């Protein structure tokens, strides 16, 4: 994989990740509750209905997640049209703040999860760095299995979250 980031990549323990996703507590609810087991996900934005935070295992620098604070599992069916559009406004604001902060050439936005694991609906906001070769874009850039995770120091993640949050305040 091309090095478009100054941070080293590592292969996380995917078996342990999937086991926790399928049998552990809801990670989004844990982040909302500020459970110490979920401190690696730095919050970048929060309002009464939504929360946005950095991915704890980012494949790209600035990779963020946006979720409703209330536990909901369906990307559309658990929302009124107004609630859904309000949440998508947050997704848009996060994506623009991330894009501007990290200088992404493109931002991928997708909702992933499963009723069998990571059931709390959330949207992935994944910035693609300039110069990423075509065969390392799209799903290859998003998936841990293909991209690996960036080893970003804790202090840098905290600083990045604060900078993205500041951009959202100005939006």
Structure description:
There is one protein chain. The chain is of the alpha+beta class and 171 residues long. It has one domain: HIT-like (HIT family, subunit A), CATH 3.30.428. Helices cover 37% and strands 23% of the residues. The protein contains six helices and seven strands, in the order βααβββαββααβα. The protein has helices at residues 14-23, 27-32, 81-102, 139-142, 144-147, 154-170, and strands at residues 9-10, 43-46, 50-54, 64-68, 106-114, 117-128, 149-150. The strands form two sheets. The protein has a five-stranded antiparallel beta sheet. The protein has a two-stranded antiparallel ribbon with strand order 1-7. Strand 2 (43-46) and strand 3 (50-54) form a beta hairpin. Helix 3 (81-102) packs across helix 6 (154-170). The protein is globular, with a radius of gyration of 15 Å. The mean pLDDT is 93. It comes from Rubrobacter tropicus. Residues 27-139 form the HIT domain. A motif (Histidine triad motif) lies at residues 120-124. InterPro entries: Histidine_triad_HIT, HIT-like, HIT-like_sf. This is HIT domain-containing protein.
Portion in helices: 25-40%
Total domains, how many? 1
Strand-and-helix sequence, N→C?
A: EHHEEEHEEHHEH
Going by helix content, strand content and strand pairing, the class is alpha+beta
Number of strands: 7
CATH class: Alpha Beta
Give the uncertain stretches in residue-range form.
none
CATH architecture: 2-Layer Sandwich
- What's the gyration radius in Å? 15 Å
Strand content: 15-25%
Mean pLDDT: 93
CATH superfamily: HIT-like
Q: Give the terminus-to-terminus CA distance.
A: 34 Å
Number of H- or I-type helical stretches: 6
CATH topology: HIT family, subunit A
Largest β sheet strand count, sense and barrel closure: 5 strands, antiparallel
Strand order of the largest sheet: 2-3-4-6-5
Shape: globular
């Amino acid at each position: 994989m091309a090095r478009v980031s100054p941070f080293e990549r590592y292969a996380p323990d995917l078996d342990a990740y999937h086991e926790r996703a399928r049998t552990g507590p809801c990670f989004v609810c844990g982040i909302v509750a500020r459970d110490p087991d979920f401190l690696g996900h730095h919050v970048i934005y929060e309002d009464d209905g939504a929360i946005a935070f950095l991915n704890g295992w980012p494949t790209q620098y600035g990779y963020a997640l946006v979720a409703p604070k209330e536990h909901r599992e369906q990307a559309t069916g658990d929302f009124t049209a107004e609630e859904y559009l309000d949440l998508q406004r947050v997704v848009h604001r996060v994506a623009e703040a991330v894009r501007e902060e990290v200088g992404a050439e493109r931002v991928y936005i997708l909702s992933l999860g499963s009723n069998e694991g990571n059931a709390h609906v959330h949207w992935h906001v994944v910035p693609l760095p300039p110069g990423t070769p075509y065969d390392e874009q799209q799903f290859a850039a998003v998936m841990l299995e293909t991209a690996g995770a960036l080893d970003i120091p804790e202090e840098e993640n905290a600083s990045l979250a604060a900078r993205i949050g500041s951009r959202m305040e100005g939006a």
